[in-house]
Design brief:
Length: about 250
């Protein structure tokens, strides 16, 4: 169904020319949440026509609950790859639902899920540095590391200015996942992230408060595995953009 899920690009190896899209979760127009995961790939290209194949992937183990507003990325370590899922919102447990609160949502637990797309396995990790479930955050994947910026927490109604670095090591045995809180984050939710070159990204739009759009743009750059975030020159926004209520990403409703 039509929905807004989390999507990422998956290559067998970081140098591979072939890739697939991984699609997980999402909220439908009927306010239903999905926990399904799909793999979409290009079957053939001819005469300017592209044919896609989309298959549903079953997961076993610690299966992430149905959610939206989360992120999914792929990291590469020691010649192997794994998906990393974090954050989002889900409906409150059925035991806590009342007629008035039937469609109420809550932050998902701040677990980090590692997804093995080849074998369909999912494992949840609890990292002490991640105390809040975050939704509509920005995630950037580079090699064996994911950076989490911003995001909104329903529990305390804040947009965190924390910057988290989640590193995944994939030795022959069990994976190792660790998290570090870095300085220099930004407070934003529902922003758009665009990659402009190998080591540079641009963050546009989003909200800094519930009813206050973030009109500042940022450049995120990497050098020697160090991340730097700085403001960039702001475009001359048109009146339509300045006064619209929905700002690029998704609204907080």
């Amino acid at each position: 169904p039509l929905r807004y899920p989390a999507t990422c690009m998956f290559k067998g190896s970081i140098e591979s020319e072939k890739y697939q899209y991984i699609i997980h979760g999402g909220k439908t127009p009927n306010n239903e949440l999905s926990d399904k995961i799909y793999v979409m790939s290009v079957v053939c290209k001819n005469n300017k026509k592209v044919t896609f194949r989309c298959t549903e992937k079953d997961l076993v183990g610690d299966v992430p609950e149905a959610r939206y507003g989360h992120s999914i990325d792929v990291v590469y370590s020691r010649g192997k790859s794994v998906g990393v899922l974090f954050g989002g919102r889900a409906y409150i447990p059925s035991a806590q639902r009342t007629t008035e609160k039937w469609n109420s949502v809550a932050d998902c637990l701040p677990h980090v899920f590692l997804l093995d797309f080849e074998f369909g396995c999912s494992t949840a990790y609890i990292l002490p540095e991640l105390q809040d479930g975050l939704s509509f955050h920005v995630s950037i994947a580079r090699n064996d590391t994911i950076y989490i910026l911003g995001g909104h927490s329903l529990a305390n109604n804040v947009r965190s200015a924390n910057l988290y670095r989640i590193r995944v090591d994939l030795p022959l045995g069990s994976p190792a996942v660790n998290c570090t809180v870095l300085p220099g984050g930004i407070s934003v939710s529902s922003a758009i992230l665009t990659q402009t070159n190998k080591d540079e990204f641009v963050i546009v739009g989003g909200y800094q408060l519930e009813n206050q759009k973030r009109m500042v743009c940022n450049i995120v750059s990497f050098e020697d595995n160090k991340i730097a975030i700085r403001e960039m020159e702001t475009p001359d926004w048109t009146p339509d953009i300045k006064h619209s209520k929905i700002w690029f990403g998704s609204n907080m409703g």
